[in-house]
Amino acid sequence: MINKKKCVAMLLAGGQGSRLGVLTKHRAKPAVTYGGKYRIIDFPLSNCIHSGIDTVGVLTQYEPLELNSYIGTGAPWDLDSMNGGAFVLPPFVKGERGEWYSGTANAIYQNIYFIEQYDPEYLLVLSGDHIYKMDYSLMIAAHEKTGADATIAVIQVPMEEASRFGIMNTDEDMRIYEFEEKPKKPKNDMASMGVYVFSWRKLRSYLDADAKDEKSSNDFGKNIIPKMLEKNEKMYAYPFKGYWKDVGTIFSLWEANMELLQEQPELDLYDEPWRIFSRNPNMPPHFVEKNAKVKNSLVSEGCHIYGTVENSVLSAGVVVERGALVRDSIIMQQTRVGEGSKIIMSIVDEEVNIGNDCTVGGGGEITVVGGGAVIKDEVVIEAGESVNAKRVVKNTAGGGRK
Question: How does DSSP assign 183-215, residue by residue?
Fold first, then answer.
């Protein structure tokens, strides 16, 4: 018999992440590398275990293979217990047919049986797209204190950017009276973080009704939350103060990595009480050759540095050959930068082989090279270009992923 849980978390990790371009051509966005040794999904998973939530359903859909393999049994996050753990929940066949998740609410609805096994009082719904550290137990306590049916985490954003987010309008007690999805003229700067706590029984009734509505988009922001407000359910905003980053675009992903190189980064990855756990590649220590130069950079295990690395983030197993320069860039796992090549203000995906005397990027705009690309010698890839190729001839790109 499975033990009753006070709270079960459901982590929405099936998004395509189309704004990340070639980086998500063959992987779900939460599986994208961040900070040299992490994946985006490491943050909500680590937050869960630190918050005392030991049962997490991970809802996958788009290009799930890499993400499913990465999560495995959940052991790196201590989510592999007998009475809980991390469970990968892809769409599945029901009766005589299968059905994709048609929206965020539908993804939860299709997994009601999984949730009901634990008979939870509360359901924590999370997005797998954001970088942040948060104690969800404090949010659940606030939800209990107010007697809310739903509590939505919010964070202040610059007013000029507020139209990009779902905005919560509240009274002085933080009770939500209006929700605006990406308003052209927002009334305040409190943006939804995509972190929700629901009283499970209340939410289930809305999920059941939503599933029967043929006109519904089956989405929390478009359907469930507006319906709950319409019926005057008790909904409260929970203000969060701390680092939070939506890394859903090429620039925001690059920027979030560069922020780690500040003298005192706002996101502290060296915070021992709140460690961010990840699946370790189990490689030997990195090696820096005597004539190499490394300045203000994060260099992960297994790297071999013979050239120059400045203000950059290197993942495991990266090789920078003699005479090569990597500056203001993110280089992901098992990539080789050939002799004399220059990589400037770029994101280079996993298992890329960059030939000798190449130039990738140059500042102004971020250049992106997709996973598995093979770049021939002396190729020039201009600033702002996006390459996803098996083989690149000088100044041209074609073909498919290696």
Answer: -SS-SS-EEEEEEEEEEHHHHHHHHHHHHH-TT
